[in-house]
Design brief:
heterodimer; A: Glycerol-3-phosphate (1)-acyltransferase; 7 strands; B: Non-ribosomal Peptide Synthetase Peptidyl Carrier Protein, Chain A; 5 helices; 0% strand; globular
Chain lengths: 271, 93
């Protein structure tokens, strides 16, 4: 869906980049705000009132909302491409760990997985409406002090059944975005939950979301030409019953996978 | 169950489950050993097995504020006493 030739894009981007970036950002944010209020809030309200499984209904709506978000992004940023293989869309019942490049990463994974949960910074749960949406979607606070402790307990008690029924839990174990593509230190949380639920661990690598929305910048890059790509590095089935199983070893294995240089594609960093 | 017996069980659980060997009784488990809320939930399951009864949601919520091994021991002793007093009889499945 790119109405412009490469030379036309190059010309526009060289001359008009600040304006194009601003236009893309306004367009995408308009969808994010007005699209939510006008198109999706009635659906969320209907799900809240009528859905038998409210959590699942909210996850499905989030999934659709962010598919729409990236559809709009493709319109305003016509040079970039997407490559998400079917084997990734078919992942079920797993704790998914992924590298973290941009604020877009969680949105990408929500748009890929219809049934999903994730860990969200606790402070977001205090934001009016948005915090309530997070709770209703079954997302998990990163810390469990005060009133959020009950949310954490409830989520952990039901997580095993949730994963067994086909849901996924995705987590960015670095906790923060990488500024140079290198892998930061990993938090143990994802691996502990996998052990708690006796769940397989799927390791994903995401590429180029930082080219679309660069850390430290407020505007989308309307001239991005890279391919947003998600690659499955491994599906690990740890022997949790084994006396020799250790979370630290599982983490080391995942870290080693994430640090392995990725396939060379347009604009993909070799780490 | 004596406090010493509970302590030796907790030390064993910390070593086997959480890869934390010989924690100090007053160490802040979060700060010193990165013991987080997910570990706490796993520990609560072990405590249920130890006590032979399920914990209520309120009892679990109280446990989320615990920071040290001594506080864990106090918590378990309190639970054991309340169960000896006949407040909770349910056994875990």
């Amino acid at each position: 869906m790119n109405p412009y030739s490469k030379s036309e894009q190059h010309f526009f981007c060289r001359r008009l980049k600040p304006l194009l970036d601003l236009g893309a950002t306004v367009g995408i944010w308009t969808y994010f705000t007005l699209g939510f209020v006008v198109l999706f809030s009635p659906l969320y309200l209907a799900a809240w009132i009528t859905a038998e499984n409210r959590e699942l209904a909210f996850q499905r709506l989030n999934h659709k909302f962010y598919r729409g978000f990236f559809f709009v992004a493709r319109i305003f940023i016509p040079g970039h491409r997407w490559q998400i293989p079917d084997d990734i869309r078919l992942i079920r019942s797993a704790v998914i760990v992924c590298n973290h490049l941009s604020y877009l990463d969680p949105l990408v994974l929500i748009s890929v997985f219809e049934r999903h949960k994730t860990i969200v910074k606790s402070s977001f749960f205090k934001v009016p409406i948005f915090g309530r949406m997070l709770l209703l979607s079954g997302y998990i606070p990163s810390a469990s002090e005060g009133r959020l402790s009950a949310v954490m307990i409830e989520n952990m008690e039901t997580m095993k059944a949730y994963l067994a029924s086909g849901g996924n839990l995705f987590i960015f174990p670095e906790g923060t975005r990488s500024r140079d593509g290198s892998i930061g230190s990993l938090n143990k949380g994802a691996f502990k939950i996998a052990r708690l639920c006796r769940a397989p661990v799927v390791v994903l690598r995401i590429y180029n979301t930082d080219k679309l929305f660069e850390p430290g910048k407020y505007l989308f890059n309307a001239c991005a030409t890279e391919t947003i790509r998600v690659e499955q590095l491994a599906r690990i089935h740890p022997d949790y019953q084994s006396d020799t199983f250790a979370v630290s070893e599982l983490m080391a294995r995942v870290r080693s996978l994430l640090e392995t240089p990725g396939e060379k594609t347009d604009g993909v960093k070799k780490s | 169950m004596t406090r010493d017996k509970i302590k030796s069980e907790i030390i064993r659980i910390f070593s086997e489950q959480f890869e934390i060997d010989n924690p100090g009784l007053d160490d802040d488990l979060r700060q010193v050993h990165e013991f987080d809320s997910i570990d706490a939930i796993e520990l609560l399951r072990e405590i249920e097995i130890l006590l032979g009864s399920e914990l209520t949601r309120a009892e679990k919520k109280n446990a989320m504020e615990i920071r040290t091994i001594n506080q864990i021991l106090d918590y378990i002793e309190g639970l054991a006493q309340s169960r000896a007093g006949g407040e909770t009889k349910t056994r875990p499945a």
